[in-house]
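Record type: ASSEMBLY
Status: queued
Input:
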Amino acid sequence: MRRYAAIVVAALLAACATGLAQQATATNLPEKLAMEAQAKLADHAGRIAKLRESSDATVKLYLPTAEYLLASLRNYLNPKAWEAANGRPFLSKATLARLGKTGLPRRVKALMDELDIVVPALEAGRNPYIKHAGSTLVAYRSPLDGRLLAMRVTIPVRYDPGKRYKLRIENSSSGGWSGGQMKPSWVRHSATINFFSAIISDRGECHYGNDLHEAETLEAIAALQKLFSIDPSRIYKSGGSKDGYTSVTIGMHYPHLFSAIVGIAINSLPDGFINSRNLPCFAPGREQMNAYLQAENLYSLPAALVTGFDGDHTNPLLMGALLEKIGAPAKIIRVEPEAGHSETRWTRAEVAKWLTKQSLNPYPKRVYVSTNSLRYNRFYWVQVDALERQNHFARMRVDVLEGNRIEVEARNVERFTLETLDKLIDASGPVTVEINDIPLGEMKVSDNRLVFAKRGGKWASVAGSRGGLVKKHGLSGPVMDGWIQPAVHVIGTLGGVA
Amino acid sequence: MKLPKDQGSRMTFDVKIFHRGGLIASMLLAVTAATALGAAEVLTLPADNDGVVLRYGLFVPRGSDGKFPLIVDASPVAVGLELDVGKIGYYDLDKATFAVLRLPPFGRGGGQWSPFGERDNLQVIRHVMKSHPIDPDRVYLLGATQGFAGNGYGAKKLQYGTLSLAYHQPDLFAAVTIGAADIRTDAYRATWLGHWHQYQLQYAFPLRLREMPILWADNLLGTPTWLTIAGNGRREMQLYHEMDKHAPVKLKLLLAPSVKDQPLPDEVVRKQIVWLLDHRIQRRPRRVVIATNTLKHSRNRWVRIDALSEVNRFCRLEARLTGDGRLKVRGAGFTGFTLTGLKALTEGRKSLNVDIEHQLLKVTPSDELSFRLDGEKWKLGRASTGEPAKSAEMTDTIIDAFREPYILVPGAGDAKLRRLATDTLQAIQNSGRTTPIDLSPVPIKTDAEITSADMARANLILFGDERSNSIIAKINPRLPIRLTGGAIISGKRTFRYDNQGLMMVYPNPLAPARKVVIVTAAIHEGYFLTDKRFAKAAFPANLPGHGFPMLGDWIIFRRNGKGLAKKGRANKGLDNAVIEGGFFDAEWKLARGPYYFFNKNFVKQGGSR
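Status: finished
Output:
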């Protein structure tokens, strides 16, 4: 029955593609190529439909890429359908003019060639990238909203899934997208590196304080770890301009996920850009855009913050000075007068060299915490479970000391957990804990964790979890939280004024 | 011209008063420095660094044997530019039981910016506290929207002045109100200066960081603070959050979304005044926090930072007495500190456990205890430093030397040096001001006239070189950058100064408690400081109303970029205006530290060396 359905879908797709050949020709695609592409589209559509039936784990893993390539080819051959669905031109007049006579055919051929690499490999149950190093588009289906999203991934030369590789990721700043959401401008080119590099940006350019891009980066990292053999202790996030900001803020929000971050021409205080007359500086949420207020979270995360001389708004020295104030190790903080909105070649080389030497330490002896939201509540082995005052910043400094001692400074925190203590202390013996200069005495670790809560102004070790409807990680607000988790938009049918 | 009536004051000064109207007609007048009790008056005081006349408004109530609380008012928007306390709407002086000191909204007057405002204001405050019955434990700072201008490190947004005065003097004010305080005022400067100027001013980045109040907010944690944020605020909320998350002793927030570019209503300010008067300064709080990148501002109540890990790098020190009698010191970026008055603070304990970043030291509390970092271990006692060494009294920049008493000293042998001296002073003090400041009180003496008493009393601003100025000739061998036969020798580099010049500050080798500033330039070819292109690069103050000189400890500059500028560049003429610049290290030695600047284009383009 399933096979029958697949054949019917393939036949429908093929018929549709053939019928639309003339429209493709209308977008300056040579007729011969258009016909060839239509045939290829029909062929791959049928083969991919069959692959969907496969239960092979490898096929399931890499099938989104084939689907993405197929959908992209279909878009190029049938731009009208895309335009009808999206309400704007598939390619703008300016783009078409820039592409000239050869640009569009080159794009279509590139997609056909890549399908010829990916589909046969999947039909053979093989990872399509083992023999095909270089830079290409790799797609995954977003767990957030089910969309197919592409990343530009550079696969190491002689990639061996039996080994673990470093991963350096970037998002797109202003401008280009990885796969242009199924209208890629280019697909494959040769590149020879010995680690994985990925540009994650199919949802568009990352913007200051855009939670969706942070979610996209995290899910893309998770997808890359499934698709390729990535060393989890060697994941680096780097970027420039708006992506420099994204690199720094994602490092502040999830320092335990990265080995190091690099921010070029970054902005400590992007909220200054917001038109203050429309959105007062005390509007809720603005502080979450403020990298400075959260910069202490970078204490144990190696970070390179570099700026040129292109204007005050990209000056990361403010964060640099804060990190100096707390004595944060492993930082490169530099002003480069000869760089504009970028870094110099010299710094690029130096930072790249420095970056490869950094690796993730998931259990640093000192952890700083600065957060005003339970959305960002986990910092290495310290977890903030409840804030005293919502939307006010919580600040913690937690030190593991010799002699099975832990010292905690906590401000605006009502409850917190110290996790994986067996990696930091002798969790089988008694632990001495001091919070805000008040010794709590010796206590026993349970399940490698200690939970503390403030009751009546006093801290005490507690057991169990909080009950009832309380703000917690994953259910903390603000409104945007509703969209950075899977969401269904429900339209009322009862009528009425609204 | 007679300024305020003479009330038989306790202190009388002879100063020359500048006559507005553009004519340099100075008059010798007797100026009172005190006011009649119960009357609001506008008074004057000569600045103790250079004699320039400072104006202020003062009201002290009558009829009390005790001492009055003092409100230092710095709110120009709320009251216009009026100095007269009696005209300020939110005061009802008939019923007032407190004194009011009105600081001048535009500092020394005439313009908007000044590197001397904070210095001047502090002098006035201290003078009023000394000369009137003021309770030193009840001095308050009222800085409503757009505090006061012309303060220490200058800023377009005047309210920064209020904030900087508060965090630079954490043990002066019992409580402060600050309205609409921006947290990084350098943004204004950068916006106006443009890219190329920033390039030229790279060496000045530590000074720019000093203009970012958010980095200094820690110093206010022990001072009850009321922040007001208006509807057109941009970043002020961040100051609130930065303070809030570090456990301030008292932090109050007023959001005024309907107030935009207007003064706060009088009734709100009256409430602030009542709130202020409710506080008394805590001299010995159990917790003290200092954040700084200069030893100049390194003291807060019973804690003083003696040495930074690195010159110009920010440090933070938090000292707190725990409930069980331990003293915890936390922080980074410092290698020496002193605790004073521990005996009283620990209430006579015989011994005290001091925990410095988890390193324990048992000490006997005394009036003054110093600690130093030796390798990785903290030890008792101060570190011995070479001479000279940077210290709270002997640190900071070229401009700092002008904030203390100074004498301009052109060499006697060259008449043009005198012109260079006055031009330099005007460039620093006066440029861009719509109404120039009267600089006639500033003392000028030739090198031959300088006595040892002068050297002990004032910094010497020396003009010329070892050939034209005998004092430079005497100290030249002991300087980190030397002048030799028409050349500037900076480490391994040599610059001919036929078209290049040097400015540097250094402890006076002949009077180590004071400084010298050396200004050497191509004096025979014109006056570099009046060259508009150079002035724009090195002295942002010369852009009308937009800044003040950002000079580190030393710069070597080119008179202008003539012959070196690339065609078609917007910044044509500015190339190589600053060739080298930076800060001396902790021992006043030439350092190629993190903020050292060298203009590579200079060499690329074949500049003479």
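Annotation: The mean pLDDT of chain A is 87.
Annotation: DSSP finds eleven helices and 18 strands in chain A.
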